[in-house]
Amino acid sequence: MQEKGLLIVLSGPSGVGKGTVRKEIFSQQDTSFEYSISMTTRSPREGEVDGVDYFFKTHDEFEKLIEQDKLLEYAKFVGNYYGTPVDYVKETLDQGKDVFLEIEVQGARQVREKFPDGLFIFLVPPSLSELKNRIVTRGTETEDVINNRMSVAKDEIEMMNLYDYVVENDQIQRACERIKAIVVAEHCRRERVEPRYIKMLEVE
Ligand code: 5GP
C-alpha cells in the first residue's frame, strides 16, 4: 500500500505574512509539496485567478459545500467564508504526496481535530519576540497602546499551544528555509518511519 503524504498546516495570527511566505515557498524549484487551493467567497483581487489563487464561490455555493460536507475545515474571516476542499486533500495524501495548507487559526484548530498527526506550524511576527524590549526601550507609547499590544501578543502566544513548531517571520527567506527544514525533519521522525521498517520485517 502507498504510504500517505504529510499534511502540513501553516497558520498564525492575522497579518503575520502567511500568504507571502507560502507564495515564496511555492515559487521555489525544490518545493516538493502540493498546495491545496482554498475556496472563498471574497472577490478576487487584481491579478488573482480562479483555480490558481482560490476557487471563488458565491455565498450560496459555499454554504452548499458546507452542507455536502465537502470541506475539511472552514471559517468566516472578515465577513467572508474560507475553506479547504476535503477531496483534494485526501486524494493527494493517498497518492503519497505532502499537502500544504495556509489557513487562519480557526481553520487550523478544526484540522488538528481531524488530522491530529498533521504537522502544524505557527508563524509569528518578529515583533512578538522584540515586543518587551521595544516597549521598554522606546518608552514613547501611551499606556493604552502598550496594553493593547500586550493583549494581542498574549492572545498570539496562547494560540501557539495547538502547534508543533513556531517559526518567526523575521525575514521571508529564512522563514521559508525553516519551514522546509521542519518538513524534512518531520519525515525522519521515528514514529513516522518505524512502521515502514516493521512492515518490511513482517513475515507472512
Ligand atoms: P486573504 O483574503 O488575504 O487571501 O486571506 C485571508 C485569511 O484567510 C488569511 O489568513 C489566510 O491564511 C486565510 N485562509 C485562506 N484560505 C483559507 C482556508 O481555506 N481556510 C481558512 N480557515 N483560512 C484560509
From TrEMBL:
<keyword id="KW-0067">ATP-binding</keyword>
<comment type="similarity">
    <text>Belongs to the guanylate kinase family.</text>
</comment>
<dbReference type="Pfam" id="PF00625">
    <property type="entry name" value="Guanylate_kin"/>
</dbReference>
<keyword id="KW-0547">Nucleotide-binding</keyword>
<feature type="binding site">
    <location>
        <begin position="12"/>
        <end position="19"/>
    </location>
    <ligand>
        <name>ATP</name>
    </ligand>
</feature>
<dbReference type="InterPro" id="IPR008144">
    <property type="entry name" value="Guanylate_kin-like_dom"/>
</dbReference>
<protein>
    <recommendedName>
        <fullName>Guanylate kinase</fullName>
        <ecNumber>2.7.4.8</ecNumber>
    </recommendedName>
</protein>
<comment type="function">
    <text>Essential for recycling GMP and indirectly, cGMP.</text>
</comment>
<keyword id="KW-0418">Kinase</keyword>
<dbReference type="InterPro" id="IPR027417">
    <property type="entry name" value="P-loop_NTPase"/>
</dbReference>
<dbReference type="InterPro" id="IPR020590">
    <property type="entry name" value="Guanylate_kinase_CS"/>
</dbReference>
<keyword id="KW-0963">Cytoplasm</keyword>
<dbReference type="GO" id="GO:0004385">
    <property type="term" value="F:GMP kinase activity"/>
</dbReference>
<dbReference type="InterPro" id="IPR008145">
    <property type="entry name" value="GK/Ca_channel_bsu"/>
</dbReference>
<dbReference type="InterPro" id="IPR017665">
    <property type="entry name" value="Guanylate_kinase"/>
</dbReference>
<keyword id="KW-0808">Transferase</keyword>
<feature type="domain" description="Guanylate kinase-like">
    <location>
        <begin position="5"/>
        <end position="184"/>
    </location>
</feature>
